[in-house]
Amino acid sequence: MILSSWSVALQGIDGHAVEVEAAEGGGLPRTQIVGLPDKALNEAKERVKAAARACELKWPEQLCTINLSPAGLPKAGTHYDLAIAVAALGTQGLISPDKATRTVLLGELALDGRVRRVRGILPAMLAAVKAGFERAIVPTGQVAEAALVPGIAVEGAGRLDEVVQLVNGLTVENPSEAAQPSEPAPDVRPAFVPDLADVVGHEDGKFALEVAAAGRHHLFLHGAPGVGKTMLASRLPSILPDLDDDESVEVSALHSLAGHELTGLITRPPFADPHHSTTPVALVGGGSGELKPGAISLAHRGVLFLDEAPDFGAKLDALRTPLENGWINVSRARMSTRFPARFQLILAANPCPCGKYGVQGMDCTCDSVKVRRYQERLSGPILDRIDIKHQMAGINRMLLDVGTATTPEASAAVLERVLAARERQRHRLRRTPWTTNGEVAGPYLRKHLPLPSDLGVLNSALQRGSISARGVDKVLRLAWTLTDLAGAGQITNRELRAALQLRQGEQERAA
């Protein structure tokens, strides 16, 4: 007797329905899994067999062959356990064949028959709905996450015998609590967003942050230690608009794939700030078995903040393609996948190892070779992809004296201007695949959007070599964002000069 059940193979954020077939007979008593399983999946036969016996369910006494179809698609992960168990138990007449083929099953099994939570429930449900399934069984603790996807009925089970009842169409009144996942869920920071009202002074820096938020531009903050670079960068999420429905599902699916437990869709732009000691795999994604999203994908549609950027070294060069294309291809020997990675990059750096080079009133202890080597850790190609470069100046002491400092503007007020600018961009780009100025392709920017009649300031900067051809497009994007913030409909020479100043920072002042 052959019985089939269904699960989902995850390749990055995309999923494919997998048919799990079980057949008994033809050899010595044992269980074998075929269809390109990885090591963790191949060990499922022992977990599932022990779980079935713990729940007093009859296991095949002859050779039991489990086939995962399509056989040419690599399979990884422990979430296939429930589908394997149901297919194998079906050969013993414990499962109704017509009902098993209409249900997607996701969950890992413990040896005592408990169902463990697994990662990637949300993208798996999206794939199941796309494949036409109308019913799913998941661990009890993940019903809320699975139910975020409309169009599929979700039921939860905490033990294998409860799964059998649910597959057969029976009702489980009080399902058991699911076991904790075999791999711990990543820590999720509390939902506290610092406010711009906390920042005293730095009016130029706040304006650069507002422009970056309005047009989704990349930003580089540099200055002496303790001047406020990290403080300013951490407040960028507070002036970013909420994610729209499609963005919320996409971002939530990525975080589900990373193992974050979700009780609702993520509606705010995420903020990722990995330490400079992070590995390249943790930064861009990958792994030796299952491919997982890295920090750049967990910052998708949000902010990736790299503090002490020079200390990241050569790892920063891995960001070149994602900064241009909005995705990262992760390839390994057995599989390859693509993760979305359209993030806003915020870099922060000191001027030298001691942090005092070029700072008024401070004596730098670094020689010229040390300073040059430190600054060269940020490669030219990476810096050329940054839209705004801002030198953070020190704060005047009078701004800290009680009674003399003016009340800083709150994030809510800045957010209103950002929302208005974003709406103008959305209207102007309504017939394109883009929604913000920072995303617009260069050819479209130059050919289909009106340009100022006098581009002399750009031509001069290009001839001097102070900006590249890519930099010209960056300046035009910034000019459009400044125009949108001003509520105007056309770039003028004023916006062009201001955009060039934002692009070059202190370099243009020196020129």
At the first level of CATH, the class of the largest domain is Alpha Beta
Q: What is the structural class?
A: alpha/beta
* Largest sheet, strands/sense/barrel: 5 strands, parallel
Q: State the total count of DSSP E strands.
A: 18
Q: In terms of per-residue confidence, which ranges show pLDDT below 50 for 5 or more consecutive residues?
A: 507-511
Note the beta-strand portion. Answer: 15-25%
| Through-space gap between termini | 81 Å
Would you identify the CATH architecture of the largest domain?
A: 3-Layer(aba) Sandwich
Q: For the CA atoms, what is the radius of gyration?
A: 27 Å
What topology emerges from the helices and strands here?
Layout: E1 2-11, E2 14-24, E3 31-34, H1 39-42, H2 44-54, E4 64-69, H3 81-90, H4 97-100, E5 103-105, E6 108-109, E7 115-116, H5 121-130, E8 135-139, H6 143-146, E9 153-157, H7 160-167, H8 203-215, E10 219-222, H9 229-233, H10 245-257, E11 271-272, H11 280-284, E12 285-286, E13 292-293, H12 295-298, E14 303-306, H13 320-325, E15 327-331, E16 336-340, E17 344-349, H14 368-375, H15 380-384, E18 388-391, H16 411-428, H17 442-447, H18 456-464, H19 469-486, H20 493-504, H21 506-510
Parallel strand pairs: 3-4, 5-8, 8-9, 10-17, 10-18, 11-14, 14-17
Antiparallel strand pairs: 1-2, 2-4, 6-7, 12-13, 15-16
Helix pairs in contact: 2-3, 8-16, 16-19, 19-20
Task: Write structural notes for this entry.
The protein is of the alpha/beta class and 511 residues long. The protein has three domains: 2-167, 2-Layer Sandwich (Ribosomal Protein S5, domain 2); 185-408, Rossmann fold; 410-511, no CATH class. It is 35% helix and 16% strand. It has 21 helices and 18 strands. The protein has helices spanning 39-42, 44-54, 81-90, 97-100, 121-130, 143-146, 160-167, 203-215, 229-233, 245-257, 280-284, 295-298, 320-325, 368-375, 380-384, 411-428, 442-447, 456-464, 469-486, 493-504, 506-510, and strands at residues 2-11, 14-24, 31-34, 64-69, 103-105, 108-109, 115-116, 135-139, 153-157, 219-222, 271-272, 285-286, 292-293, 303-306, 327-331, 336-340, 344-349, 388-391. It has a five-stranded parallel sheet. Helix 19 packs across helix 20. It starts with a strand and ends with a helix.
